Amino acid sequence: MENIIKSIENSLQGKNWYSALVLSLILPDICAKLEGSDESSSARYPKWFESYLGQKYNGFLSGNDCYALRCAFLHEGSSSIESQRAKDVLDHFVFVANGAHCNKFSNCHFGDPKYDGKDFLQLSVNHFCQDMIAATKQWLNDPAINKNLSEMLEIHENGFSIGRAIKIQ
User: Fold this and answer.
1) Is a pLDDT exceeding 90 seen at residue 126?
2) Which of 55, 63, 136, 158 could make an SS bond with 50 (beta carbons 3.0 to 4.6 A apart)?
């Protein structure tokens, strides 16, 4: 998990916003699964988000809307969640590199059919990713979680060894 967190931090430092956002959006999925849940991703992701970020984003972003964003962005590259089954309140997301965080717009008319009459949320990609990191670090403090961390995918930079006898390069 530390490698994923470090990758997000490095992406933020390098202003690689898309990489940071993708990795941040998968954190609740990974964390909820490592808790041992047999529920579907669509059930466990929103619960994890509400547990660890619900209070911070209360009134702005629900666990279901965040899961809908995860699905729309990771599978379609889209900021629109209008067609996502998990959608709760919002229709669209707008991410900014620098600027206001958690600006919610409801049924506004700007002369842009993409946003007119829609409910959308503007988020600072940096703040959002930092919030996901903080929530994950809080989650990592649970000793019961540590036993499952070995199940995570690991990239072996110097090859891979099985025991002492077999080394695969």
Assistant:
1) yes
2) 63
